[in-house]
Amino acid sequence: MSEDIVLQVEGLTQRFGHGEQAMTALDDVSLDVRRGQTLGLVGESGSGKSTLARAVLLMRRPTAGRIDFDGADVTNLRGPALRRHRRRVQMVFQDPNDSLDPRFTIARSVAEPLIAAGVRTGARRGRILESLERVGLPSDVVARYPHEFSGGQRQRIAIARAMVAEPEFVVLDEPTSALDVSVQAQVLNLLVRLQEETGVTYLFITHNLSVVHHMAHRVAVMHDGRIVESGSGEQVMTAPRHPYTQGLLESMPVLYRT
Fold this sequence. Notes:
The structure is a single chain. By secondary structure, the protein is an alpha/beta fold. It is built from ten helices and ten strands. The strands form two sheets. It has a six-stranded mixed β-sheet with strand order 6-7-8-3-9-10, sandwiched between helices. It has a four-stranded antiparallel β-sheet with strand order 2-1-4-5, covered by helices on one side. β1 and β2 form a beta hairpin. α6 runs parallel beside α7. The longest helix is centred in the C-terminal third of the chain and has 18 residues. The radius of gyration is 18 Å and the shape is globular. InterPro entries: AAA+_ATPase (IPR003593), ABC_transp_ATP-bind (IPR050319), ABC_transporter-like_ATP-bd (IPR003439), ABC_transporter-like_CS (IPR017871), Oligopep_ABC_C (IPR013563), P-loop_NTPase (IPR027417), PhnK (IPR012700). This is ATP-binding cassette domain-containing protein. GO terms for molecular function: ATP binding. Belongs to the ABC transporter superfamily.
């Protein structure tokens, strides 16, 4: 693996069920994500994007294939080795209403990755406040609860939680699709700024090519569990080769086309 590649997936296959009833959600998927960059993973609902994300995060064991992270095979990690690996990767989910426990204060929610990493209570507060400040939230939010905030603010809290342990790699699963259009650009710009400041690597999952054009250095297009096209964002947006990608572009509002 090249030193500038942080994640490499080779021949990843995911099947559910057995025999004639088996469903193939991922079919021999291969891709890589370069350090400090964003790979946009694009496709319609049901194309396999979220299944791939969960496989990459080792939330689900693939049926076949290999996942390398920072030059090491992590496909079959278990126990303490898996817990150590998970300190290096985080995820921001589509809907912050589902990802933030309503019973927890903001401080407790943001602290979750630190607790999992074994960071002592006394050392957590400063890191929590710093992470919240990075996403544009004041320190006085720590004692409040998720229902007291708008959708955009809740997603900022979810991003603060993902970034608090200084991960190397973050999966962003449709992080703006549940937000009002008026705040989507703000959250996207926040993610770009955090990447510039920290050097974090993103896998950005979306069905929206206009979002990818704003965020991604490279793009991979998924259809029926396969990668049907990949390349630079500019290449995929201006000269798509696969009919499926061409169809996605045709469905975009004219305002967003290049």
